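Technical note accompanying the year-one report. For the benefit of new consortium partners, we illustrate the data format agreed upon in the data management plan: each record pairs a sequence with a C-alpha cell string. No post-processing was applied to the example shown here.
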Amino acid sequence: MKQSTACLLLATALTACSPSAMPDPVDRAAPALALDCFREHGVAMLAAHRAGPASGYAENALSSLERLAGLGVLYAEIDVRQSADGELFLLHDETLDRTTTGAGPAETLSWAELSALYLRDPDGVILEDRIPTLSEAFLIARESGLVLNLDLKTIDADTIVTAIEAADARDLVAIIAYSVEDAAAIHALDPGLVLSAPDDPDALSAAGVNLDTTYLWLGTDPSEAIRDARFAGEDLETSIGLFRHEPGPTSLYTDARNAGVELLSIDHVEDAVAALGGPAVLHAQIDACAVANSEN
C-alpha cells in the first residue's frame, strides 16, 4: 500500500496518551488503508482471530466485535457462510454443534432457522448472542472503526463483492485470499478492495492483483517475522498468525512488532493488547494514522 502519508500526528498522539486518558475516536476514513502509516512508524495492529472469543464472548458474535473495538483492536477476523436461502452469516465451523445451540450442517438451513439459535462461548456456556448476519457486522464496523477481516468459507468472489458494494462497506473490510488465483478473482471485480494475500508479490502482480491495496500473509511461524524487512523495502505490509503459539510471553507480540510486521493475528486479545501498550496506546496509534490517511 504505497501512500505518501506523513503520519506526523502519531508521535503527538502517543506522547499525549496515557492509560487514564483514552483519546476521543476520530472519523476513520478507509482505516484498512492506513497500514502503510503503521509501517512507517514501526507500529503493529492486532487482528482478533474469529473475533477474539473469550469467557462470556463467542466466536463471530456482535458483542465480541464491540469488545474488540473498546480494547483498541483494529482488525476482526470473521468467518462468512451462506444460508440455504442466501443470507450471508458468521460462523466458523461447517456444523453448528460446537459454537451454537443447534446441530448438524449449517448451510443446509434457512436464515429463519439459523437466526433462532444461540451462540456458546469457548467454555460451552450459552449466551444471549445469536448468529449474526454479515450486514449486522458491517453496522458494528461502521460505528466502531473496526476493519472486518473476511474469511470466506464457502463464498465466491462475485457474492462477497456484490454484498460489500450493496452495503457500501468497501472501506470497512479486508478480504482473506488464500491463493493468488483467489486474490486475482476479487481484484478483477474491484481492485480497490483491501486483500490479505499469499506472500508472493511477483505472482500477485502478474495475476493482476493491485499491490497498493494488498498486505502479505507470512504464515503462523513467529520466526518468519524477519521476512518483513524484504517486503518493507518494497513498501509492502505484512501480517502474521500468532494464534497457534498462544498463550505466550510478551515477547511473542513485541518481537513480531519489532521485526516490522504491521498486523498480528491473535486469539488471546487481552494479552496482546497489554503487550503492545494497552487500549489507550492502540487507540492513539489508530486514530493518528486514520487522521493522516483522511488528509492524504
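Partners are asked to follow this layout when depositing records. DSSP finds twelve helices and eleven strands in the chain.
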